[in-house]
Structures are given as structure tokens and as C-alpha cells.
Amino acid sequence: WQEGHCAHATHGESHEMVLQALNWYKTVYMEYYAIPVITGIKSGSEKFAGALSTYCVEALMPDGKALQGATSHDLGQNFAKAQDIHFQSKDGTVEYVWQNSWGFSTRTLGALFLVHGDDNGIILPPKIAPTQVVIVPIARDTDASTISSYAHHIQDVLKSSGIRVQVDIREGQSAGRMFNHWEVKGVPIRIEIGHKEMENQTVTLAIRDTQEKQTITA
Description:
This protein is 33% helix and 31% strand. The chain is built from six helices and twelve strands. The strands form three sheets. It has a five-stranded antiparallel beta sheet. The chain has a five-stranded mixed beta sheet with strand order 9-8-10-11-12, with helices on both faces. The protein is elongated.
């Protein structure tokens, strides 16, 4: 949950804050959640009670319904007058403040799950994924150490580029179980490294959202 409240000396300053907060929320959805949204002003019957106007961010869900993803309210001086919230202006007069409030809640996670989830779990956009790439070594006992070293080399290369990456070296887990584990968690890219990849100095990429696989030179 996130919520903000401001008090300003003029309506212009307050309204500017209303639109700035609205743009922050639009940015979160579009650039971080990879969810397209539209912004606009609510009708008089739907605006926040007591506000002059309410602006909102709306996202379209897979079932065709719109989700109100965030709101930003221009409260005017209505609450300031009701609660006697005033200040002394530069010219010495006592005036009521101009207020706004804005926020979004855990429903943003609901939007994320609905838009980017599938039958295999969640799909996390790269910007917000705690792990952007997971490397799964697939090794026989005879070459496990060598393949593990190769996997950690790839990890170091990716880390140096600022990518959040980890190597899954858990014991007693089949490759299929590890693949499923990371698919459910929504990691954007899985790198598979076996004996063939090590010999050819390649890696096999599994893309979470498209379920496609491709082999590239490391």
C-alpha cells in the first residue's frame, strides 16, 4: 500500500502535484509492470467524495474488464475548511490550504498476476524480477565439476553487466523439477548448461513468456 497527502499554498501547485503523482503510477505500470494503461478523470458521480476531481489509472484485464489501478485526487479546500487547516501567506493573510491525496495498493499485484500469469505460474517483467536469469547446470557425475565451473563463469559475465542472476546447484533435484521451480517463480530467462553446451561454449536459453528455446554462443 502506498499513499501520499500534500498541502499547498495555491490550487495550481496542488493540481500540479495531482498530475505528477498520476504520472508516477502510469510509469510504474508501463515501465516496470509492462502493463499498458490509460489515464483520465472520473465522472462527477465516481470521484472521491469531497474532492474537486479524481484522476485514475485504468488497466485492461484479460477478461475484458478494466481495473482501477491507482487514483490521484484534487481535494481543493473542502477538507481544509472542514478541519480548519490554514496557513499564513506571504502577505500576512490567513488562508486555507489546497490539498491533494494519491495512492495505489496491493491490487497492483493482482493486475500483475492477471496480465502476466499463465497455467505455469507468474511471469515477471525483467525490471521487477528479483532473479532475472537463472542458470541450471545439467551434469553427469563425471563432468559435474567442470559444468558447474562453466555455469559460474557465465554467472560472473552476466553479473558484470548488471543482470540479477543465480546458479541453481541444489542437489537431489532433477532437471525437470528445477525447470518447473523457476517457471512457477516467473524468472524471465532460464539458461540450461549441459555437456554439449560446455563443449561447444554455448548456452541454451528458455524464454519464460513465449516458452521458446534457443541455443546461442556464450
